[in-house]
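Backbone shape codes:
***
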Amino acid sequence: MLKGRNATIKISTVKDPGSNIKTRCAPIKIEAVDGSQSLCSKSAYVIPTTKFYLPQQLAADVINNLSYSSKLDLQNHESLDVTMLIGADVPKAFIQTDFILGQVDEPIAIKTPFGWALLGPACNDIAVERERRIVVNKIEVDECDEKLHNLIEQFWKTESFSTGDCFKLGHSSNDKKCLEILEKKTFKENGHYVVPMLWKDNELTLPNNYEMAKKRFQFLQKRLSRQPELKEKYVAAINTYIEKGYAKKVTKEEIYQSNKRTWYLPHHPVTNPNKPGKVRVVFDAASHYKGKSLNESLYSGPDLLNNLVGVLLRFRVRPVALTADVEAMFSQVKVTSEDTNSLRFLWNENPTSNSQPDTFKMMVHIFGATCSPSCCNYVIKRIAREESDQYSAMCIETLLKSFYADDLLKSLQTENEAILLSKELSKILSLGGFRLSKYFSNSQRVMEQIPQEDRAKSKCDKTFEDKNIERTLGIHWNTINDSFIFKSNIKVSPFTKRGIVSTTSSIFDPLGFVTPFILKAKLLIQDMWREKILWDEPISESQHKEWQSWLHETSNLSNFSMRRLYYDKENPIPNDI
């Protein structure tokens, strides 16, 4: 296996515009069999051959029938598979030092630094002549830094301060189609909503990717065997899925009753440094097999998320603050029985054993599927619509405007309003099988009225005075003095354009509190762009000093604070808020 840095590349061919593939990239030395010639390439990629079609080399008997075969010094190989492609970015490999012309309809022999190559018709067999095909081979590889691209995209979305949403277009034709599906096919069963996955093509047939999923499971087994602590937590997470009915073991009879959209999902553990000790199961719905993936077969659905900046701004309006979290939101929304076969996965009670893995299937919407966020947010808004006559206007408005995915951020005028709202929200969401938990407030009286099992756990184990830092949508909230603060824990990356963009983009500041400070780094990035500095090229000495100075100043972010409450007696709340 080639060792080197991680890379994301896009392979396009004549037939397929291509999709992103994660691989490794490293410099490589290519040498002729006799050692007479060698060339170096800075970038070599290991790519699964399933991603595109590769023709085979000519068999030895075909080459031996050429009129000039005795003049060629060719090596015999048992395998006819092509194992390396050398592109035009290594032009010296294509230098022609000699050639041999054959008979009519025979290929031309061309001598390159690595030996003889054949160019032209494969053979002059008359029988084949009648079935002659024109073959066009084209493979184009573009490297793209997906992680960096996502960071930059998120950075500029945040920096736009939501002004882009002012010009946000209405739902697309595909979004309208998805909404129609959701309206017609969503139903309630045993206290939970059942929502179909948003397929692009109802007649789609997916290839049997069992073997691919099995190989990925074997990689997971090796990883867990090396990390006993991770294994213990991951086993517990999977067992929780099974115990709560989120996942179900597929019987032997059901395995052979698969439908045309049966798909096996690779899965892996993901940890969050902000939530130490917690391991989340993530299913790789983007994995490819024979040119197909689950995510590419699904619509993402309409964007039903509330505007992040809007949620945060409304959280600053009134004195009493209330936050909460919808527990395991995705897992409370079921998929249809037909769709469960598209969410199969492999698992063993002892994942590091060598026994044949069992087949399970998810019964609910999963993390990783492109349509899951839209489907689950739709359910929250549907509950608000269906129960609007039974609950207060404040409760319905909170459901519609004060949730960002599974996070609630709400500000109210009085403690009594907050206590009443918390009870209403818990009750209305329970109608859809949801549980609102991890409640927290800057009011001790409000917290005392919330059942202890529904409070944020860390807030139950300590005295109220010690529970002064709460994380709300990525922002740190000091609940004692009711202010937002920053924590200076920036990870320093290499002093290159890539490293500087990555570090700058990692500062999450949706409300623009520290925009003047970030501006200095943005001006430096702009300067590097103007000078056309490459991603991994060392920066100049002056830029190095400027960047070092900026990094040193990041420690001052810990001293920054901004009060949460925007309005007070001197600045009354406008009527239209």
About this structure: The longest helix spans residues 210-226. The two ends are 59 Å apart (CA to CA). Residues 186-483 form a domain with the HIV Type 1 Reverse Transcriptase; Chain A, domain 1 fold (CATH 3.10.10.10).
